[in-house]
Design goal:
DNA binding, 6 strands, six-stranded mixed β-sheet, 23 helices, Nucleotidyltransferase, domain 5, 699 residues, 6% strand, alpha/beta, 47% helix
């Protein structure tokens, strides 16, 4: 080892203090005490001399103060508990934002902390480390401790009413079943490759998305029931069936998912024979999740006939109350990956086929399922020993909105559990009007889980909604009512400082001081949404006064790192959630549950009949309407034909009249012509007679 390399001593301040106490009280000699604790004698002599000071920190001063770093730690813990864990980049961004908004000098480039600062921060705060978060659904995050305790209370009442508490106290009669999937080609996380290589590939030896569903059942005594495998195929070949052990269950479905049929086959052919073989006393308790394949009426009837009390765990709590998910499946999956890797090395990287699946899974089960893991899983889930107090409620992210009194003289800087008072939302956080404004409430203030932002326009609209007459009449106690008192309290607490027409609110407000003066004390209150502060204002008799912090004094104050550390709202389950809309029976095979299932089935059948009758009525109405439509069309067609006939008759009549008129005209013309011809003939005869007379006279 290089002589210039410094080694960290293997003793701490507590050991030095004990060693010094033994030496000063003369219980041990300096040599013996130093040898006992492994501390150099020169160190103890120096500590006992007058040259020693109280400074025990090594190295230079940290960039952030101890209190500021502690607030960062509390922020990280608060975000973790709310289900929003902080990544490294976000933490560095918070520190950068703080230095960007303050004039404090720092050695960071562009105010961004580097790798060494992060390493030192983790070394100074051992309670913080890098972890891989577990993904939790939104519905699971909203489950509260009260929900789980209520489920345990309902289950206990049922067990007592049906004389099943003896089974709940016997580990050989308590079981938990659940499905999980195994990928035929598990993804490799890290491999060994050449340094600096940009492209590192791994060839898939099978479909990376193909997985097999396996049903497992575990007993509270540490026993393991043979699994049931559901294969994604339409028909099971003889070769595949021969590769499975005889006591395993083998089913099939189009997509390889567990369904009601396969679950019933598993209970009848695998689980029940296992109980008979072990000579377990019936009835037994079988805890499962609320999947549709587990809660069907057929499954409930089968379990009731076999003496199996099928109990559904509280919805969305399998990560808290199901032993298989809590303590067994994770090491089993790790063992599965190792078993698949070993099998490929043994068979030269061949593809893992379905016929090879049972042997590899059996090897993974032998190495990944331990008896103590099973018993510990049942214990931390409260199933055996049975009780709600055994459950790890630290996994419950959601919290209830509570009301509590606040001691105005209490110190908000720290609490016994290491969290700042701001994590429970201090009294001054009741309303966050603007980032620059704070509210002060007295000891009767309501403390909510999260504050809200109210725009000033909304406040003025609320004042207009109350009305000036009602506001002016708040001082008259004779007209007071419960509703009036509520409106009056809201007005005085939130709206009065914004009422420009109220003379009591038109007073100059200015910031005077924070709770403490030093930087460490200034940052002593860690809050989520609003920085804790204390302001003086007029009139002094009203403790609910909104402080006006828009002046120059506020603009020049020091910025606290707490103002940058804001946590999101805690997830809460709405009262309209489906679990609250219907009565939830924890025991599926209870008579009331079966009656409910049958009633629902009967209602479904009645609904189908009713819909069918309505459909028939609609069809008959449609036929009748079509018939009426056809009759109307026929009548219209007949009417049109009659109209056409009348038109034709009128046309023929007009034609005959025209012909008669033409004939009369022709006859008149003919008579006229004959008359003219006759007249002409007479004229000619007259002319001839005259000529004849003239000739006679001349002769």
């Amino acid at each position: 080892m290089d002589s210039t390399t410094k080694t960290t001593p293997n003793y701490d301040e507590a050991a030095i203090s004990r060693c010094m106490e033994l030496v000063t009280t003369k219980q041990m000699t300096l040599y013996a005490a130093c040898k006992t604790y492994g501390i150099p004698q020169s160190t103890v002599r120096y500590r006992l001399s007058s040259k020693w000071t109280t400074k025990v920190r090594k190295g230079p001063q940290t960039v952030l103060t101890e209190v500021e770093e502690q607030k960062l730690v509390q922020y990280l813990v608060a975000m973790e508990k709310k289900g929003f864990p902080v990544v490294k980049d976000l933490l560095l961004y918070k520190v950068k934002t703080f230095f960007d908004s303050s004039s404090r000098s720092n050695p960071f480039t562009d105010n961004v902390p580097g790798r060494k600062w992060m390493k030192g921060f983790l070394r100074r705060h051992r309670e913080i480390t890098f972890r891989t978060p577990e993904t939790v659904s939104s519905a699971s995050a909203k489950v509260k401790e009260a929900d789980i305790r209520g489920w345990f209370a309902n289950l206990k009442s049922y067990l007592e009413e049906n004389c099943l508490m003896a089974a709940a106290l016997d580990p050989t009669r308590i079981y938990n079943g659940d499905e999980t999937s195994f990928f035929l080609h598990p993804q490799t996380k890290t491999v060994l490759a050449s340094r600096g290589s940009k492209n590192v590939y791994e060839i898939e030896h099978a479909d990376g998305h193909k997985n097999i569903t396996v049903m497992f059942t575990f007993g509270a005594d540490g026993s393991v029931v043979s699994p049931g495998v559901v294969l994604p195929m339409q028909r099971l070949s003889v070769e595949i069936l021969r590769s499975f052990p005889g006591d395993w269950g083998v089913g099939k479905s189009p997509k390889g998912w567990m369904d009601t049929t396969n679950f019933m086959l598993y209970i009848r052919n695998v689980f029940y024979p296992h109980l008979q073989k072990k000579k377990v006393r019936f009835p037994v308790l079988y805890f499962v999740d609320g999947h549709s394949s587990h809660t069907a009426a057929e499954v409930a009837d089968l379990c009731l006939d076999l003496g199996i009390v099928l109990i559904a765990l509280y919805p969305n709590t399998t990560r808290i109350t199901q032993p298989a998910d809590v303590a067994i499946f994770k090491p089993l999956k790790s063992a599965w990956k190792s078993a698949v890797a070993d099998w490929r090395m043994e068979y030269g990287g061949q593809n893992l086929l379905l016929k090879d699946f049972p042997g590899v899974l059996q090897k993974a089960m032998d190495g990944g399922i331990k008896k103590h893991s099973i018993t510990n899983g049942f214990r931390v889930c409260g199933l055996y020993p049975f009780g709600a107090d055994y459950v790890d409620y630290g996994k419950c992210i959601a919290k209830s909105v509570t009301q509590r009194g606040v001691d105005p003289t209490s110190d908000c800087s720290a609490s016994d559990n290491g969290e700042e008072f701001g994590n429970e939302q201090a009294a001054s956080e009741t309303v966050d009007i603007l980032p620059e404004l704070n509210l002060q409430f007295d000891a009767q203030s309501i403390v909510l889980e999260d504050s809200v932002i109210i725009p000033t326009a909304t406040v003025h609209a609320a004042i207009d909604c109350i009305g000036r007459d009602r506001i002016n009449g708040f001082g008259d106690d004779s007209n007071s009512s419960e509703e009036g008192e509520i409106i009056r309290t809201i007005y005085e607490m939130l709206l009065k400082p914004f009422d420009s027409q109220n003379t009591e609110a038109e007073c100059g407000l200015q910031e005077t001081s924070f709770l403490n003066t030093s930087t460490a004390e200034e940052d002593s209150a860690f809050v989520e949404n609003v920085e804790e502060g204390s302001f003086e204002s007029d009139p002094p008799h009203n403790p609910r006064v909104l402080q006006d912090c828009n002046g120059d004094n506020f603009a020049g104050r020091k910025m606290s790192i707490s103002e940058l550390l804001q946590t999101p709202p805690t997830p809460q389950r709405s009262s309209s959630h489906r679990n609250y809309k219907r009565k939830f029976h924890p025991v599926l095979t209870a008579s009331e549950r079966l009656e409910e299932i049958r009633r629902l089935e009967e209602e479904k059948e009645n609904e189908v009949v009713r819909k069918k009758a309505k459909a028939e009525e609609r069809e008959l109405a449609k036929i009748e309407a079509e018939k009426v439509k056809q009759e109307k069309a026929k009548a219209r067609k007949q009417k049109q034909a009659e109209t056409e006939m009348r038109k034709i008759e009128r046309a023929e009549l007009r034609k005959r009249k025209q012909e008669e008129t033409e004939q009369r005209k022709k006859k008149k013309e003919k008579d006229k012509l004959s008359k003219v011809a006759k007249d002409n003939q007479q004229k000619q005869l007259k002319m001839e007679l005259l000529e004849a007379l003239k000739l006679q006279q001349q002769s």
